[in-house]
Amino acid sequence: MPCTDGAKQASRDFSSVRADKAKMQQRLLIHHVAVSSLANRKRLFNSKTTEFRGEIIMEWGMKNRLSRLIQKDGKALFLPVDHGYFQGPTHGLEKPEETIKPIYQYADAIMLTRGVLRNCIDPAIEKPIILRVSGAVSMVGEDLSNESIVTSIQEILRLNAMAVSMSVFVGTKNENKSLSNLAKLVDECEDYGVPVMAVTSVGRELEKREPRYLALVARISAEIGARVVKTYYCENFRKVVDGCPVPVVIAGGPKTETQKEVFDFVYDGMQAGAIGVNLGRNIWQTENPVASIRAIRGIIHENYTAQEALDLYNQVIAGKA
């Protein structure tokens, strides 16, 4: 029977499909080799929960890591000691191991760089680690916003980090680079179930700590894929939280003049919907770091008011608590 034009076309189409299928199988094979078996598993759907905002699709590894960072009450106290990555030997962090030792037990996780982790932290520590992976800038450099990713996904996994963090600079000449770095980091970390925390950064421009700007950065970070956003407290903080579909933790910023100021903004931020804090200098640069972190923990996990936190702070100093 003669081969019609339609039959010839059908034959060519079938051959094309077979070729495309072979190419796809090859790509899948390469992908399978490149990523872990856990990352290859079908993503699980997790419906709305009390712990996390919105509808979240996560596989087991991501859920497990986030559950170690965000406690059963849906709240978290992160302790950052990563300031040396751009400030050098910051006051109070000249010897990180001595700074951390008396206070880390009251934190839910510690945020730091790989260098401090390797050289100053006991590998037997049970606290989850949030690894700072952006840097390559300094206080004496031209532009703090010109950060790069300085830690590979292999190193992140090798150091058993529960999460990673990087700074995000919006409204700067390096905005595109910063947000592109975030996107690439999210892509790499999602393959292995590692959550990314975006850190809202203002560099030396402290006047940017206002709701419109902070809400903009928080939302963009979440849109790109950050699982958690760290940002500064400001007036009308509810606007920042409500506009961000992922959990928000409060940054401390420069050390305040009084301890009560810290307790006030932590309490107000929690009332506005934040799940917790990521405070460093307003804990370990104070005269009484243990009393400070215990009082802040009271606000976060025991629903203390700012005044109750101040009372606990004074009791700890007096040796009565």
Give an account of the 3D structure.
The chain has a single domain (56-317), classed as TIM Barrel (Alpha-Beta Barrel), CATH 3.20.20.70. The chain is 45% helix and 14% strand. The protein contains 14 helices and twelve strands. Strands 3-4-5-8-9-10-11-12 form an eight-stranded parallel beta barrel, surrounded by six helices. Helix 9 (211-224) links the parallel strand 9 and strand 10 (228-232). It is globular, with a radius of gyration of 23 Å. The protein starts with a helix and ends with a helix.
CATH class value: Alpha Beta
Biggest beta sheet summary: 8 strands, parallel, barrel
Give the strand line-up of the largest sheet.
Answer: 3-4-5-8-9-10-11-12
User: How many H/I helical runs?
Assistant: 14
* Amino- and carboxy-terminal Cα gap: 97 Å
**Topology, number of strands:** 12
State the low-pLDDT regions, or none.
23-52
Helix content: 40-55%
